[in-house]
Amino acid sequence: MANDSLKQLLQSHLAWWGLRQFTSDDAYFSWQRETLSPDEIIALLRAVEEKRHGSPASETSFYDATAQPRILPVLYSQRYDYYMAVGPRVADRVDGARSILDVGCGVGILTTFYARQYPDKTVVGIDRSPASIARAQEQATALNLRNVQFECLDLDHRAPALSVDLILATHALLQAEQDPGIPSRSWKTFERAVDGQQQGEFERRTGIGAKLDHLRALLSARGRMIVCEKTRQLARRIPLQRALAARDLGLIEQPELLRYRLVEEIADDGPFFVLGVGTAHERQWNELPEPDEGSPFEGAKLKATSTGPDAPLYENHWPSAQGAWEQLRDRQLIKENTYQEPDGRQLHVELGQAQEGVYLYCANTFDQRQLVIVEPARRGMLEVYYQEIVNSPL
Ligand SMILES: C[S@@+](CC[C@H](N)C(=O)[O-])C[C@H]1O[C@@H](n2cnc3c(N)ncnc32)[C@H](O)[C@@H]1O
Question: Which of 105, 114, 212 to mutate to test the pocket of ligand 1 (most atoms within 8 A of CB)?
């Protein structure tokens, strides 16, 4: 099915669910105030606050609250563009599967979309939020869908009794958004040690290990899995990739990075992974930082390209700053400090002199890099920044 027509079908499906697309926070929040009573808004804000604590119980009570019929369209309209980014991409790839499992399906907005588009396929949605599953079931009945079922189940503890050809896990496996992932070997590199203990701890504390073990056991021999989580940071992407690879899941397609709006806020998400059972898949897992928006570094031309008397000669707050720092000519340290935490976190800061100018470089084991270069006469400015970092390093 062409992607454009899937998009149109999804738009009318979202409208059926009562969702609206907003591009302005003002318009969205005034609709929220018109639609919900002050008490409902307070209850919702409380649930959002509680979800931040990150316990499974508080998270489930948040999702239970959002499944209430008056709250649902208001809250999930914030995710309108997320549905438009994920739904058609998934729906475009379900061909060949007869049975589909949608893990952490929530209220079933996307699950019912897939079931509507493919009446010849069996779709099962599971979620641990009882109110979300009740709503999903009700909506499927209202849509007269006969090929979809929902089950309330906590995947951390058990798997549904099924065998399926395709598993969908979109924003469902790595809910612990607070988890920073695993640090790099040192501030000098983006590389992660291949360390079974560290990986095991990540899988245990986020619960992804148990979830993937349960899911993998349901997949048929030629089964596929589509995974899209909030793992744009390398520190989270690498352990997710390693957890998938360790369960014999390989890349079928080049992973795709997603960008969409949460009303006005830009969300960078994904990657969108399409995976198959077996290691025969040709594409390699990539553990490098993604290309970023840092300015290209051309040392010899810096002075000529400076944008103004008060602007630094060069500034880069992206991982590519590391490559620029490595290229500095005749680098000489003025002073440096490296801080180390027992959990492996490191932060390094250095002030130095190179042919290009006086520079401040800051790097940590969670892939943050920062390089600023100024003329020698403006060294005092970088001394101040250096001291600020030294005063509150981690
Ligand atoms: C952000 S929602 C995503 C819903 C849907 N997959 C989507 O893409 O819109 C995450 C859902 O995962 C569910 N979930 C989280 N951990 C779970 C677990 N261990 N077992 C089952 N469901 C879980 C939550 O209850 C919630 O409904």
Answer: 105
